[in-house]
């Protein structure tokens, strides 16, 4: 079973921040190593990516520990207001710059900093209220507030959101991470309960996100046909009983071939899986 972090009332702000930063970093590393993931970097290969490797993903994740630490420390027992939104935005952008310095300018974890950063902050705001749904709701409140210092620069994600009129990373957070709360976490628990191994359960959770997410990484590279293929392929695996079954394994290979042929990778779904592992480990249910 995965390690669970139980946060008692006795932790100082620094102790909590340290534990949250370690848990968030480990969740990113576990996501990167988890195999087999279609199109994504995993322990087998770089998937559909030319500029990413597992080693780079792991180094990038480790470079973010100090960012998560500061996010937790500065969010400790604070309400969701504009001052906190601006602080979180400043720390998130500094973390992104640190990540880019570590990777030589390659985007390894931009989406992950956004989702995980908000959730780390949300835990520290009220460390005694740790149900996944209440953490996600607090994160949503911060995400919905305006950040006057946010640079209005072009990104592939925002371009896809406008072109295809879909919700992207920003909207997923603002609506309380429905793909984590309603899809990934229930699937993770369901697959474990059915006797799937821990890594099979995590792949099933990734697939649950992939059944409906408007992943702007997939849209940017492959458009609507590639996104449809991902949704249908992920559904087929889960309908067959998930990746612990022979039929599920075969359908996953089929989905992987299709995504590699389309040159697509579900980077948004991967970010949400890492955030799911984080919530699973910090929550006291
Ligand atoms: C909101 C973010 C993700 C920017 O989004 P944008 O629409 O500009 O797209 P961008 O291409 O930069 O990033 C999108 C990333 O999100 C992930 N993603 C893609 N689709 C989705 C989706 N539907 N749901 C969730 N995540 C997704 C992918 O990994 C992708 O790489 C974020 O980078 C941002 O605004 N950061 C500013 C710093 C900040 O405020 N930080 C606070 C929290 S620490
Ligand atoms: N295991 C993983 N493999 C690949 N991407 C991942 C993984 N985990 C998370 N991601 C997310 O996917 C995003 C990278 O996607 P992508 O490579 O499509 O972005 P890009 O560099 O902006 O675009 P492109 O590579 O199409 O030029 C990152 O923001 C990261 O958060």
Relevant CATH superfamily: Triphosphoribosyl-dephospho-CoA protein
Order of helices and strands: HHHHHHHHHHHHH
CATH architecture: Orthogonal Bundle
E-strand count: 0
- Helix and strand composition category: mainly alpha
Question: Proportion of β residues?
Answer: under 5%
Mean pLDDT: 95
What does the largest sheet look like?
none
Q: What percentage of residues falls in helices of 4 or more residues?
A: 55-70%
**Bound ligand species:** dephospho coenzyme A, adenosine-5'-triphosphate
Q: Class in CATH?
A: Mainly Alpha
Q: Spans of 5+ residues with little confidence (pLDDT < 50)? A: none
Quaternary? single chain
Note the total helix count. 13
Q: Terminal Cα separation, in Å?
A: 16 Å
CATH topology: Triphosphoribosyl-dephospho-CoA protein
Shape annotation: globular
Q: What is the total number of structural domains?
A: 1
């Amino acid at each position: 079973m995965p390690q669970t972090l139980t946060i008692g009332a006795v932790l100082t702000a620094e102790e909590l921040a340290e534990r949250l930063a370690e848990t968030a970093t480990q969740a990113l590393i576990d996501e990167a190593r988890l195999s087999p993931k279609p199109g994504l970097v995993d322990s087998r290969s770089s998937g559909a990516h030319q500029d990413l490797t597992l080693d780079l993903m792991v180094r990038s994740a480790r470079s973010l520990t100090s960012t998560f630490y500061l996010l937790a420390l500065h969010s400790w027992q604070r309400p969701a207001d504009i001052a906190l939104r601006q602080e979180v935005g400043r720390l998130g952008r500094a973390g992104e710059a640190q990540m880019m310095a570590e990777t030589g300018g390659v985007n390894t974890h931009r989406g992950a900093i956004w989702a995980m950063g908000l959730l780390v902050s949300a835990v520290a705001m009220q460390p005694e209220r740790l149900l996944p749904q209440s953490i996600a709701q607090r994160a949503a409140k911060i995400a919905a507030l305006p950040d006057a210092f946010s640079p209005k620069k072009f990104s592939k994600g925002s371009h896809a959101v406008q072109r295809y009129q879909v919700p992207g990373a920003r909207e997923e957070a603002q609506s309380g991470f429905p793909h984590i709360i309603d899809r990934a976490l229930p699937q993770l628990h369901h697959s474990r309960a059915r006797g799937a191994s821990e890594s099979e359960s995590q792949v099933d959770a990734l697939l649950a996100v992939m059944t409906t997410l408007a992943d702007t990484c997939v849209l940017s590279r492959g458009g609507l046909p590639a996104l449809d293929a991902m949704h249908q392929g992920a559904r087929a695996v889960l309908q067959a009983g998930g990746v612990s079954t022979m039929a599920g394994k075969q359908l996953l290979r089929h989905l992987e071939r299709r995504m590699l042929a389309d040159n697509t990778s579900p980077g948004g779904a991967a970010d949400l899986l890492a955030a799911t592992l984080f919530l699973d480990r910090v929550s006291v249910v």
